[in-house]
Amino acid sequence: MEHYVALDVSLREISVCVIDGKGAVMFEGKTAAEPVSLVQLIRTKAPHVVRVGMETGATSPWLFHALTAAGLPVVCMDARQAHAALSLRPKKSDRGDARGLADMLRMGWYREVHTKSVIAHERRTMLGVRHQLVTMRAELDAQIRGVLKTFGLILGTGNSNALIRRAEELADGHPIISSLVAKLADVRRAVVLQVAGIDREIRYLIRSETTLKRLMTVPGVGPITAVAFLSAVDDVGRFKHARDVGPYLGLTPTRYQSGETDRQGRISKCGDAFTRTCLYEAAHVLLTKVQRFSPLKAWGMRLVKRIGMRKTCIAVARKIAIILHRIWVDGTEFWWTREAQPA
């Protein structure tokens, strides 16, 4: 007899529903949000389990890898699709959601979502922490400028340590302001120190992985963009065609078609927003800073004359994502000329 297990996950407890192949409920209950107790319950209540399903969420990767390591057939279901199906039910409860998810599993009315590896999540978390620290540094710089500006002390532009030393010199002679600026400067120096530490870890990662080195041969692509792309895609075999990476990262325009109406909108902005931003910045650097010409830059410059810089950066960012995917698959490097293309 087949058993289907659905999990409605929360931080402390998990609602579990077990049904058989005909849809009859075999078990309904709750257990602690711990893999050990969850695995034990599934093996006891569903000895002939065919599929274990849960929605995508904050703790889904942790549970997915833990249950997979225990040998259970786990799938992650698209939370938006599951929400659309469960919203048709007259009442909302954890028990009812688990039952609805179980029915979706049994009938196959779900879309499985790829769960990234632990390494990909670790790298993406590292980039997220670095981004947060860099944002804090920028906010501290703005706060120091605002404090000094009120008293007619103009700091100027820049974001180096020399600028902070100048701020402390300007505040000298104002006891209260000097004390406040010194406190902000100390916090800023601590933040800069942590950012430098993460940058060292990223450089070590680049040196230890050849794929990242090859991705960085694309003009405009630096260590942050390479690591972000690698962690966002995770498994290069997920995409049958390289052109599928663009829609996955939200770099393709939306479309609305109904009857005689057919409109093409802005880009969808699906997927990882940080990776999409990195690719956009890489495209902007390629078009404005990189001096060496390539077929990619020449195509982008022609496009700028027709549709403008902003839209061109989006198009070039999508093209860079496709090139990065092909470099990853083929084990090659960026072709600066068409003659460099292997036979």
- The number of helical elements comes to 13
Strand content: 5-15%
Distance between the termini: 55 Å
How much is the radius of gyration in Å? 26 Å
Structural class by sheet pairing and helices:
alpha/beta
**Helical content class:** 55-70%
Arrangement of strands in the largest sheet: 3-2-1-4-5
Walk me through the structure.
The N and C termini lie far apart (55 Å). Strands 3-2-1-4-5 form a five-stranded mixed beta sheet, sandwiched between helices. A two-stranded antiparallel sheet has the order 6-7. The mean pLDDT is 93. The protein has three domains: 3-107, Nucleotidyltransferase, domain 5, CATH 3.30.420.40; 118-208; 213-340, no CATH class. It contains 13 helices and seven strands. With 343 residues, the protein is of the alpha/beta class.
List keywords for this structure.
Nucleotidyltransferase, domain 5, two-stranded antiparallel ribbon, alpha/beta, 5-stranded mixed beta sheet, globular
Structure summary:
The chain has helices at 35-45, 60-69, 79-86, 94-107, 118-149, 161-171, 175-208, 210-215, 223-233, 245-248, 273-288, 295-307, 309-330; strands spanning 3-9, 13-20, 25-32, 49-55, 74-77, 253-258, 261-267.
Helices and strands, with pairings:
Layout: E1 3-9, E2 13-20, E3 25-32, H1 35-45, E4 49-55, H2 60-69, E5 74-77, H3 79-86, H4 94-107, H5 118-149, H6 161-171, H7 175-208, H8 210-215, H9 223-233, H10 245-248, E6 253-258, E7 261-267, H11 273-288, H12 295-307, H13 309-330
Parallel strand pairs: 1-4, 4-5
Antiparallel strand pairs: 1-2, 2-3, 6-7
Helix pairs in contact: 5-6, 5-7, 5-9, 6-7, 9-11, 11-13, 12-13
